[in-house]
Each structure stands twice: as C-alpha cells, then as structure tokens.
Amino acid sequence: MVNDKNSQKIVDFIQNWARKHSIWVLAYGTGCGAIEIPPTMTSRYDAERLGVRGAATPRQADVLLITGYLTVKTLKRVIRVYEQMQDPKYVIGFGSCTINGGMYYDSYNTIKVLDKYLPVDVYINGCMPRPEAVLSGFARLQKRIAEGRANGAQQYKDNLEWYRANQKKIIPNWIMPEYNW
Amino acid sequence: MEMIHIIFLIFLGGAVLTYFSGKISKVLQDIFFLASVLVPAYLFFAYVGAGREATLSLGGITLIWGVNHFSWLFSLIVLGLGSMAAIYAIGYMKGKKRKGYFYFNFILSIMAMMGILLSIDLISFFIFWEIMTWSSYLVTIYNGHDIQRIGIKYFVFSAIGAYAMLMAIVIVHHLTGSFLMSSMINFYPNMSLSMQIWIPVMFLLAFGVKAAMMPLHVWAPDAYSNAPMAYTSIFSGALSKMGIYGMVIVLVTMINQIPQGFWFREVIAWLGGITAAIGTLWAIKQDDAKKLLAYSSVAQLGYIITGIAIGTELGMLAGLFLAVMHALFKGTLFMVTGAIEKQTGTTNFNEVTGLIRKMPWTFIAALLSIIALAGIPPLGGFVGKWMLYESLITSNHYLLVIVIFFSSTAAFLYCYKFLFGFFLGQEEKEWAHVKEAPAVMVVPMLIMAVMMFVLGTFPGIILKPINSGLMDLGFVDSFKHLWESSVILNVWGNHVVLQPILYWIIGIFVFFMIFLTWKGFKTTRYVSTKDISSSGEVPADDENLTFSVGFMQPFMRAVAPAMRRQIDKYYNGIADGLESLFEFIRRIYTGNGQTYTIYVIVFVVIVLLFKNILF
Amino acid sequence: MDNTLFGYLNYAVYGTAVLVILIGLYGTMVKKSLLKVVIGLSVSDSGLNLLIVAIGYYKGGTAPIFSPGFLENFKSVSKMVDPVPQALVLTAIVIGFGVTAVALALVIRLYRHHGTLNIDEIKNLKW
Amino acid sequence: MVGTPVLFIAIPLLAAFLIPLLGMIWKELVRIVPGLVLTYLLILAVNLLVHVLAHGPVVEVIAGWVPPIGINLVFSVFSGFLVTLMIFLGLLVWAYSYRFKRNVDYEPALKYFLMLMMLITGSVGIVLTGDIFNMFVFIEITSISGYGLTAFYKGRDSAEASFKYVLLGSVASTFLLLAIMIIYSQLGTLNMADIANKIHLMNPTLKIVSYIFFVTALGIEAEIFPLNGWAPDAYAEAPGPVGAAFAGIVVKASVYAIIRYTFTIFDLSGAFNFLIIIGMITLIVAETAAIRQEKLKRMLAYSSIGQMGLVLVAFGFGTEEGVFAALFLMLNHAIIKSLLFFSGSYLVYNSKCKYIKEVNGMSKFLPVTSLLFALGAFAIVGLPPFAGFWSKLSVMTAAADSNMILIMVLVLMVSVVELVYYLRVVNRIYFFKKETAIEPKKPTFNALVVMIVLGVIILAIGFYPDVVTGVLHKASASLMDKSQYIHHVLSLRQ
Amino acid sequence: MEKVLLDILGAIVTFLVAFVVGMTYGGLNRKITARVQNRKGPPWYQNFIDAYKLSSKKSAIHHGVMHHLGPAFLMVTSVMTLLIVPVLSHNNWFPNLNFQGDLIFLLYIMTFGPLGMALGAGQTGNPNSAIGVTRGLSMMVGFEIPWVLALVALMIQYHTTSITGLMAVQAHSGTWLMFSSPFAFIAAVMALFGMFRYSPFDIVGAPTELASGPIAETGGKYLFVMMSSGSVFTFAKLTLYVDLFLGGADNLFILIIKTFALYLIPLLYSLVSPRYRTEQAIRWFWGWPSFFGLLAILQAIIF
Hints:
The complex is a heteropentamer of chains A (181), B (615), C (127), D (494) and E (303).
Chain C: H1 5-30, H2 34-56, H3 74-79, H4 83-114
Chain D: H1 6-25, H2 29-55, E1 58-61, E2 72-75, H3 77-96, H4 106-128, H5 132-150, H6 158-187, H7 192-198, H8 204-221, H9 230-237, H10 240-265, H11 271-291, H12 296-316, H13 320-347, H14 367-380, H15 387-401, H16 405-431, H17 445-463, H18 466-480, H19 482-490
Antiparallel strand pairs in D: 1-2
Helix pairs in contact in D: 1-2, 1-4, 2-3, 3-4, 3-10, 3-13, 3-17, 3-18, 4-5, 4-10, 5-6, 5-10, 6-8, 6-9, 7-19, 8-10, 9-10, 9-12, 10-12, 10-13, 11-12, 11-16, 12-13, 12-16, 13-14, 13-15, 13-17, 13-18, 14-16, 14-17, 15-17
Chain E: H1 2-36, H2 46-55, E1 59-62, H3 65-84, H4 102-123, H5 127-158, H6 163-173, H7 177-180, H8 182-196, H9 207-210, H10 220-245, H11 252-271, H12 278-285, H13 288-302
Helix pairs in contact in E: 1-10, 1-11, 2-10, 3-4, 3-10, 4-5, 5-8, 5-12, 5-13, 6-10, 8-11, 8-13, 10-11
C-alpha cells in the first residue's frame, strides 16, 4: 500500500498540507531583524492564524529563521542548530543581509551569502522587512511546501561536501560533530 | 541438640572460621562466608518449622528459643535478604581490606537477628539485641571515616535504647519472677498503671532506636551511609526490622490490653508519620546516594511504624507488607549504590552521571526498586501503600493520611534524584571506562527486583504468611472480612484486579513501543548525550553539562522553614553541654595532694554533720 | 572521772592528743613545703599515738608488766593499765616511722626532679 | 592436701624476704621464685576453697590464743574466693611483668618482685584476718609496698603520684587507727567476731563515728570519691601490671574490708544506703571524669574507680543478690581491668606521656594486643556475650528486686558514658592513622600468654557464666550469714 | 474472550474520544487565548494539524532507551487513567477497570507517567530537561496536598474510596458534590491549576526560560505521542473531576459541556497570570488551597 505510487502521492499531499499549516519556527535572533518577530507574532499581524508558532528547541522546530546578518561567530551555532533539526526542515533567510550582506556587504566579519552555507528555501528581503513581508515570506514557504519544492534539507544532504567546504572556509577551528543525517 | 542449636553453632563457628581462614586463602574465606550464611538459612527453612523449641541454661537463667509464624516471617526477611546480601558481598568486598572483619560481623549480625527472632525469653532477646548492636556498630565504622562521631552516635543511641530495655526486662523479672516473654505478657494487665505505661515505653525506646523513629533517628543516616553497602542493605533492610518486630510485639501483646493503649498507638503513629515526612525532606536534600537512601530508609520505616501503630488488621498487614517490601527494595537500592561505588569509586550525584548505558542491569534493578519504593503500581510498594491509606482512612486518621501522602509524593523527588544522579544525564568522558558490575553482584539485585515484581503482582504470596503471623499474635483471621470487602486483592495470592491492570499496562506499553520503533513508520536514531540543543553550542568532550548541584533547590527553598530546625542540633547541644560538665568534673582532680587531703577532711566533716540523716 | 583538777587533766590528755592531731592535719593541709607536710603527718601520728595510750591508761594504773608472784595478787592485775593499746602504739610507731621514711625518700626524689619543695608547683599529674 | 590460711600470709612474706638472699645465689631466681610461690599458693587456695565449699569455713588461730583475745584468720567461701582471685591475679601480674621494662635489670626486678610479694601478702592478709588491728597492719603493709611500686619508675612523675598516695595513705591510717581505738575503748576487743557480737552495747554516736572513720580510711584505699585523689595518678604512673594489681588486688582487699565492716561488724541500718550513695557518687564522678581524659592509663584508672563505685552500690543493696552481683562485678573487674591494663601498657609502651592519641593505628603493629584490648573494652562495658554482661545483668536484677529504679537509671546512664570513652579508644586503635613517631613494642611471649589467658577467661565466663556463678552464690551466702561467721570464730576452743 | 475483545474495542473507542476531545480543547485553548489577546488565532483544529505534522516528521532522535520509552510511559499512564475513570454513567462502550479503592490507585498510577517521562527527559542529558523535571516534581508535591485533602474529605464524608461510589452518592442524593462539599471542590479545582500547568504554573516547560524543559530534546513522533497523551490525560482528568464533583454524565454531550466548563477555569485564570517561581507556586498550593482542603476535612468530620 505504501509502495503504491498513487497512494504515496496522496499521503505526500496530506503530509505537505499539514506541514504547510503547522510551521514551528525557531527564530534565531542573530541580527537586528529579530525585532520584527514580536509584531509578526502578536495581535497586529498574528502569524499564528497561519499555523506559525514559535518552537523552543531545534528538535521541535520546522523552520529556522535567520533574522538578519550572520557574523562569523554565530554561523557555527546556526549550522549546529540547523543540523539538529528534524527532517523535514526549512530555512528562511530574513532581511537583505542574508541575501548579499546588505549594509554589511564589505564587513570583514559577516557572511554575505547565506545560501553558500545553508540551503535557504525562502528569502525575505528588505532592511528590515516589515511584518507584512515576513508574512508573505511564510506564505511563500507554505506554497513551496505544498508543492513539495521546499527540499532544502535534501539539497544540503546531497551537497554536503560543498557546504562543508564553504563553512570550513569561514570557521577556522572546526570542532563540530559530523552531520550524520 | 536441636536444629536451632546447630544453626547458632554454625553461625558462630562460621564467623570465627571465616575470620581466620582469611589468613590462609581469600577464596576459602569467601566460601566459608557464603556457607555460614547459606547453610543455616537452608537448615532453618528446611528443618525448623513453627513450634520448634530449644533451650540453653546459662548462669541460672534458661534461654529458650523457638519459632512461631510471626518470627518465621521476619526470619524470611533476615535470611532471604541476608543470603542475597552475602552473595553480593562476595563481589563487593573483593579486593577490599578488613575482609575478615567485615565477614565476621556480617555473620554475627545475621546470627543476632535470628537470635532475636527466635528468642522466647527476654534475656536471650537482650543478649542477641546487644550482639546485633555491636556487630552492626563494628561494620558501621568499617570505613574508618568520621567514626568518633558517627559510630559513637549510633552506639550511644542503641545503648540508651538497649539499656532502657534491660531496665524493663529486670523490672518485669522483679514483678513476675520470670524472664519469659509470655509471663510478661500475661502479667501485664495486673501491673500498676505506671508500670503498664513505663514498661512499654522503655521497650519502645529500644525498638524505636533501631527502627529509627523520629526523635531517635538521628544516628541512622550517618550509620547507614557509613557502613559498606553490602552490609547496609541488611542494615536498613533487615536490621531495622528488628525494631519493627519488637514494636509489633509490644503494641499488639501489651499495649492493646489496656485502655490507655489508644493514646500510645496514636502517639507512635504520629511519630511514624512525622518520621516519614522529615526523612523524606532530608533525603531530597542529600547529594550523596548513601545519605539519600539512608534518609529514605528512615522515611520508609516511618510508614511501617505508622502502619503497625494503627493497630487494625489492615494497618498491621500494611506495615508488615511494607516491611517486607522495604527489605527488598531498599536492600536492592543499597546494593545498586554499592555496585556503583565499586565501579566508579564515588557515590556522589555531583560526580557520577550517565551510567545507564554502562551499567544497564544495575539500572534495571534500580529502576524497579525505585518504582516499588515510590509505590507506583504494578510493583509491590503500591500494595503496601494502598493498604496503609485504606487502614488510615478507615481508622479515622485523616491528617495522618495527608502527612503520609505528602511524604510519599515528595519521595518521588528523591527517587528521581537517585535515578537521574547516577544513571541519567550526560555521559561524561570521565566515566567512559565504567563497566557493568560483576555478575555476583548483579544477580542478587536482579533476583530481588524480580521478587518485587512478583510480590507486587501476587501479594498474596507474602500476605498469607503475614496473616498467619498475625494470628499467632492473637489477631483474628483477617482473611474473610478483609478480603471480601476489598476488591483489589480479592482472592489469596490470586487477586482479580491488579493482574488485569497489569496486562492492560503491558498491552498499552507494547503498543506504543511498536508505534515508536516501527521501521515502516519513520526511522529513529540514537544520538549521544553530547548532541543536545544547547543554543547551538557544541559542548566539548570534557565539558560537564550535567545539572546536579542544587538539584531540588526550588523545592528545598519552598520547605526551607521546616528544615531550619534540626533535631541533630539539639542532640549536639546536649552532648556539648554534657562534655563541658564532664570537663568540669574532671577538674575536681586538681593534681595537688593537699587539695585531696582537704577533700578527705571535708568528706569526713560532711558525713559527720549529716550522720543523723544518713544512719 | 572525778571533778578534781587531775580529773580534768585526764580530759586534758585527750584534748592535747586531739589538738596535736589537728595541728598535724593542719600542717598537712595548709603548709606548702613538702617537708612541712611530712612533718605534719608525723605530728598527727604522734598525737594519735598519744591518744591511744591515753585511752588505755586509767588513773593509778600500774605498768602492765608481769613480775614473779604477780599473778597471785588479783588486785595488782586489775590495777594494771590496759596493755593492748601500748602494744598497738608500738606497732603504729613502727609503721609511722616507715611511712615517714618513704615520704622523705619521695621528697628527695621530688626535689631532684622538680627543683622545688613547693607542693603547689608539683602538679604535673592533674585532671 | 588442705593447707591452712596462715600459709597465704606466711609464704609470700617469707618469699619477699628471701628474694634478695636467693638473688645472691642466682640472679634469675629473683624472678622465678615469686612465680613458684604464687603457683603453689594458687593450688593451695583452690584446694582450700574446694574444701571450704564442701565443709564450711576454716578458722585458724595464730599464736595459740583463742579468739577473742588472739588473732584469727578466717577462710570462708567469701574471703577464700577473694584470696584465690587475688593470688591468681598476682600470678598473672608476675607472669606479665617477668621482664617488663625496667624489670630486665636485676636491681629493679628485685625491688619490684619484693614489693609485689609484699603487696599480695598485705592484701591477702586484709581479707583473711579476723582482727581489726591486724587488718590495720596489713593495710599498711599493702600501702607501703604500693607507695614503692607507684614510685617504681625513675625520671617520670611517679614520685609525685607516690607522694600523693603517701599523703592520703597516712591520713587514712590516722583515721583507721582512730576508728579502731574508738571501738576498742568502747568494747575492749579487737576481734571482728567479738565486736560484731557486742556491737549493740556501743554508744550509738561513737558507733557511727567509728564507722565513718573506717569508711573514710578504707575508702581512701578503695578509691571512693572524694577520697581517691591519689588513685588516677598512681595508676597512671605505676607500671602497667601494677595498675592491674592495684585494680585487681589492693582495691579488692579494701572493698572487702569495707564490706566486712558494713555487713558483719556494724549493725547500722543506714550503712547500706550510705554505701549506695557514696558508690553512686563515685561511679558518676569517676566515669564522667574518665570521658575527658587524655591519657590512657588515667582513663583506665577512672574507669576502675567507677567500677568500684558500682561494686559498692551493688553491695549497698544489702541483699544476697546484690552481694552476688557485687562479687561477680569484682571478679569481672579484676579480670577485665587487668587485661585492659596489660594490653594498654603495650599499646602505649614506648610513649612518654601515654596520651590516648598515641594508640592511633596500633592494631596494625600489635594485632593481638589490640584485639585483646578491644575485647576487654567490650567486656567491661557489659556487652554480651562477654563476661561483663552477666555482672551487669545481675546488678540490674538485684537493683530491680530492691526497687531501686533511680539507681538503675543512673547506673545505666553512666554505662553509656563508659561505653563512649572505651569505644573512642578502640576506634582509635583500629581506625585511626598512626601519626606519632613512637615505635610500637611487641609484647613479650609471657605477656602475650597472660593476656590471652585473660581473654579466654572473659570469653569463657561470657559464654558459660556457670563456671563461676556457683562459687559466687555460695560466697555471697557466706557473707550474708553473719551469725554463722561469729559462731565459727567464737566457738573455737583450743 | 469475547468480553476481552469488547473491552479492548471499547478502550480504543474511549481513547479516540478522549484524543479528539482533548485535542479540540487544546485548539480551543489557543483560540480563546488569541481572542483574549485580540488576535484571530489559529483554527480550532490547529492541534490536529500540528499532531499530524509531528507524526509525519521523517526523522526523530533519541538519547537512549529511557528517552525512547518516556513517551510510552506517559501514554500508558494517560490511558490507564482514562480507563479507570468512569467516562459515562451507563454505557457499555466506555468500559472501565473500576474497583474499590481506585481513587488511591488513580493517584499513584497518575504519577507513573510523569516519572517515566522524567526518566526520559533525564537521559537526554540536556540540563534544561532536568531542571524542568525537578520543577515539575516539586510542583507536584505542591498541588497534591490540596488535591489529596479534597479527596480525603470526600472519602471521609461519603465513606467510600471509589469513584463509582461517589457517583452513586450524587445520583442517590440528587445534588452534586461541588454543592454538598464546596470546600473540597474549591481545593480540588485549585489543585487542577497545578495539574494543567497553565500559567501561572507553567514553570515546567517554560519555553523561553528552559527551552520547553523536559521535552527540549523531544521532537517528531515522540512529541506526537506526548502531545496525544497530554490530550488524553486532559480529558481523563476533567472527566474525573466531573465524576467526582459534577455528578458525572449520562451522555457525551453533557460530559463535554461539563468538562469544558471546568476546563475554562484554569484556562481563564492562566490568561491573566504571569509565571510563578517554583517555590512560590508550591507555597501558593500550600496556602489557600490547602486551607480549603482542611476546611473540607473539617466539614466532613463535623457533618
């Protein structure tokens, strides 16, 4: 039954629907963008109506929200958190800094393109992005999940060596456990 | 020569032989040791039944030994637990010093306990009581750690108790002209009121000390934690039950005969309840497993005392059942602690963590005993607790129920602390080398764990002997009206409700086990305890992330006012005051010969002045 | 006893003896010098001996000595003072002598050891 | 072969004076002869005791004068038992101190054994004699040899201890003589049986005064508080075996004298309570003082004093059970305290100050001695199954039968104190680290044998008290039977 | 045999009902909270979606066997509690293992799960989990006191230790126990605050403080099992309260109304309360709730 292709499709559809409507966010408040999370979650914009909800630990979270610039120092932690999350998992790059460095484009101490280090599913641009933009980003993620295209985790697994190489370039004292998913 | 004589001779000879054979060969010593515990145990259960008697005449006093069902029940605890602890001790004592010393006192303790149980006359009761005291004292100071405080404290309390008992015994002898227990009991209703009150009080002082009853319990935590764990398991499991044994006899056969007995039982029941509460609170505070278990023993003995002090059939059954269970699970827990001590060298929760994958069998034994201790069904502790509550409610001890329930709930805190402290938490690199304890230590623990399970599911196995024991003490057969009115244990040994519940539990458990491990569902994988979500930080190998210092601090803060007053401090104050007084008395001897001469003259003058009063 | 002066004197013997004993004891108890303590002992011993002899004596008694023909005269026997106390005193004197000798020997040793005869300073053994 | 009581006085006295002469022949004889003499006496004593047990007391008249005029010796079961015990202990002390410390040299050994024989002579004489002045003489003999033995060591504070002993001993003799003279002036006799017969004729006040003087004088020897200032010092400074001899022989004799005066001679009704009171005070003060001691032998000394107090208490019950208990206590105390002194001496053998802390960790070096000390400690505090338990039990039984509840409570409380200090020492021996640089000294063979013999006796009595209880019962009966004593002595015809 | 099968079938039905109702309550909780905070809030079935999503996670990790079994322990407890509590008064489809003394049995079986769960949490090695567990156990000691006081008061007053007995008492007299034993009811309800661990007693899993405490390392289907067991347990607890104090229920509709009304009490209280510290929470339970419990016992003894 499970092997049957059609039924697999149906199961996938239902699962994706559920995943789409239940997004548990681990907001990694690395940069100034974290300030936009509270308005997004509270009364004014109320992201919870989309099924978005904060998660306390990476073990429970579905989405890793990188809010703003990532310094070299925090990158290691972010990678660690991402690797601890359970499959399926998604990454949202939040703010321009995650796309190209934003106003820190020439900083010696921040990483410019997040996608080189973690498989970003959705970028939300803006500096800062307003809560509406954030909600729109979540909606985009939901859409991608429903379509089954939010497969950043698979991508990460497939291209682990490339990602690792990039990560190790930034992080000189690499003492992390192997990613064993 | 009766079998009882032979048993005592084997104990005695075995003890001496064991001691001296250590000079020849360690293996021989172990064999002698095991033989001198196991052979008498076998002989006792095989050949000595209720009604057998033996006598020995010493110094114009006839010592009489015999068995009834009640003492047989306690013999079961002593010899059963003793045998297990003896097997365990072989492993535990391997490579330790003073082995012969330990074995010698171990055997003597078991002999003394058997002697107490078999004694029909008070003198042999007292003799064995004292032998038990000093042999256990000698083991208590085995480690040589802080013995001037711990050991002496234990012995002083024991001695005060024992001397009170001695007084009672000689007064009884004065009143009845006989040292027989039965004559004491028969004469008891004819005594004057003050004697009716004081004689039980004096006996209860002795038994209360051994049973670690509230104001007399201060020796217990130190002594229990200081003795080698192989011995503590019988110290706490069996030796303290001697106090319970005596208490039951005094309460049932003497105090029940007088109208004032009600107040006696009330007071003792409340003391038991308070003991349970205080013991529990202090157990939660301890950072050392030995201390924790020691205080826990105090608390558990409190339940037992409460149960037997209530005096109803159900209360008695509850107390005695709990006594048996306590022997099992506390014996096992002390053995577990001993195994951990043996393997890691420490019993401090702040040091040892994460042994579950290294010592799985020990963990299983510990888990089962903890479940039994906490009184969680389906293990045996629950049945006892249930009966205790039932008896307390039916005998209108409402506030006592609350106290007992409080301590029993708070017991979860230390239960968890014990399991977490040793077995759970981070698996530190420091303890990566730890191996499972040798089989000779693990097997007794597991046997006892299985026993707990069996007794929890089929409590009738042990309730039946308890009932016949109580009948020997003069209770009516509680079989009929107790077991028909309560549904939980409907038929002897084959009760109808707990077992289905057990099946349900197992069924549901298995279902969810399958659910969680079902391959087709999704994979679950093991990751090490270093791989935890700690804010993205990667803990280094030597980084200790375990949370164990100040483990129950919030709770301790909540109950801090209750723990500010320690009874220990009052005793210390008394002891200090006495020592200063003695120091003052010592200074009477000034060292000056003339002063002594003056003393002589003063003595003469004073005596001459008071000669009319004196002569 | 009669009320004559001699009669009172009879008491006076006892009184003197007791006084001597008390003086001796006083010396023993109060004097700091070891030698004086020993002398005190000796003095009280003497007083005691005096007392004993006095107890055995009565007025007009003769010495308890047997002489030829003595036993025939019953009256002379009854007039004899009691011989036993005198015998006892002899023994007591000997013993007292012995004790004094031992005491003095010890005093010498104490003096060598401590360099003083003050009893207050010889208190190594106390408490 | 049934000897006569006079031999027990004559032979050791003779031996004492022969020792120097024999020493001129062969120096080793100084050591050997006392042992032979004491062995002989022991055989004699046991024989006589057996005879007496069967046939009643043996009364012997000295110098042909019939009592009440002459001096007589009484070997009743009571006194016979004590004599046997003393001689036995004397033998053990001899065996133990065969080559103990200074005794290795000829000169000190000569003095030592001479004085030891004198000590035994005096003590045995006290017990056997039937004449109060004769008793005085024996007491002085005992005391003077005691002074000598106390001052046996040179260079220590033994002279000081001895001087205190002399001081108090002289005061004691003063009071004793006074008491004797009061009785003599009233009754005109010195024979105990005769006095006992006539005691009701005495002026009551003088009777009491003389009794008080007696008790004071004998109490100094018997270590009653507050008359016992000399005792701790003397015990502490005398050689170890001498301590045992004091505890086992001298004190026993003095207590015997007190008991003889109280039970047989005087008929004071309050005397028993008086004994209980002074015994109790002694017991409490001594035991509580012992707990704070810093020196081992002083501690043992105080313990010994306390035990004697308990003995007096037990006698003070005035019942046959009480006497039995007291005798049992005396027996146990003699044996156990000797063992403690013997083994304790080796535990602190080479130490100058004999501090308790110097026994730390001695069990590693002196296993047997330590074990025996522990055995003794356990026995003396009355733990079953050792000897001390039975005596404690009998004391308690006697107290209960006399309705002395308060006494029981006090005695038991004091027992707890006793327990504490003995256990502290045993703990030190076994579980403490040896810290001082003092070299432990292995016990010599003879000392070891003596200690083991004592240990075996303790165990034997503990496991089978019947070996002694029969004799003790008879002895207590013989003490209680006052009229028979008087009859036996006064019915003698030449 | 047939009876056993029927029992099992009935148990499954009971379980499903409890699951659905409990999950719905959870969703309503979120909805109500949102409305009170002037938000739209998630739909009422949001919890079902979350649960399904958790169960369909592709991977899950565990830190060892106790961690692996922890959720199962918890579930066993929930189901056992559910099975022992009589769900409906006269209905064969909701069987229970009722017997005399079951209140005490219930009290103890209810602690089985938390202990197992605590063991699981302990094995993760996450300090936050252990802290959460200690807080939870401490608070349990806190709220068990008024809860037991209330129960003992009921036991004394009605001379039974059985739930069915108490239900029979209510059916017989026609009044609910919350009216005839008001103090016991008050104490019990105050204890209920602690059992639900809603604010101000949400110290165990405080998300920002302890990273959700005992379940910090639990994700995927483990979390799913825990969540469902929590829902079942919620329903079981509420049903127990209804049985004890609100006279039980004859059909599901009444049961749901009564349980929801009861559920609103801790829920609404939580909306207006910040979080206590652990010792404050414990002392709170040992304050007024215990006082009311004692009053209840007094009432039971006097009347």
